[in-house]
Specification:
The protein has a single domain, classed as Ribonuclease Z/Hydroxyacylglutathione hydrolase-like (Metallo-beta-lactamase, Chain A), CATH 3.60.15.10. It is built from six helices and 14 strands. A six-stranded mixed β-sheet has the order 1-2-3-4-5-6, covered by helices on one side. The chain has a six-stranded mixed β-sheet with strand order 7-8-9-10-13-14. Strand 8 and strand 9 form a beta hairpin. The longest helix has 11 residues. The radius of gyration is 16 Å and the shape is globular.
């Protein structure tokens, strides 16, 4: 499998190019500003991009959607409530394939109402729900601290420890992690009641 991580744009965003192999079918996850290096890699590696996967609708995660669509004809995949153009609307538990790649959707509202994770072949693209060592903000429009608590403590903590975490931004000490490492080291995932978590976010 081809899995390339690109730090692009002014906000330390990560965009991912994933394919079953060079010259094979693939996807782009969260095309941000400054997408040219990813477009060049798509051409250089002859990837047939079938889908654009958006983890949520904030501008810095969808700014390159049209550029990738224009270059590849790929279809945009997003949660059904995302306020953006989407060719394929998904919800929690949905699954789809691009060539030999198989993806599963986990709905994780909190940062936005439309935030999702994409699980695929030992990896999880977490967008702005979970960073390395941190979680996403809940004080922006559409954010909800109580929903973030449920997403982190009922969805993320239920994931397999071996999954490789592919975050939406380069905010941590390393560009990737694992769910197991985040369970051990990420202070936002420490055991807390809902009330304790809400107070923790307020602080």
């Amino acid at each position: 499998m081809l899995l390339d991580q690109y730090r692009v744009g002014p906000y330390l965003n990560f965009t991912y190019l994933v394919a079953d192999e060079e010259g094979g079918d693939g996807v782009v996850i969260d095309p941000s500003f400054g997408i040219d290096p990813v477009l060049e890699a798509i051409d250089a590696k002859s990837v047939r991009v079938r889908y654009i996967l958006n983890t949520h609708s904030h501008r810095d995660h969808v700014a390159g959607n049209q550029d990738v669509r224009d270059r590849t004809g790929a279809k945009v995949v997003a949660h059904r409530v995302a306020p953006l153009h989407q060719d394929v609307s998904v919800d929690d538990g949905d699954a789809f394939a691009a060539g030999r790649l198989h993806f599963e959707v986990v709905h994780t509202p909190g940062h936005t109402k439309d935030s999702v994770l994409y699980l695929f072949h030992g990896n999880v693209a977490t967008g702005d729900t979970l960073f390395v060592g941190e979680c996403g903000r809940t004080d922006l429009p559409g954010g909800d601290p109580s929903e973030m608590y449920d997403s982190l403590h009922r969805r993320v903590l239920a994931l397999d420890d071996a999954l490789v975490v592919l975050p939406g931004h380069d905010y941590g000490p390393t560009p990737t992690s694992t769910i197991g490492r985040e369970k051990r080291e990420n202070y936002t995932l420490a055991p807390r009641t809902r009330e304790e978590f809400l107070e923790f976010l307020r602080e």
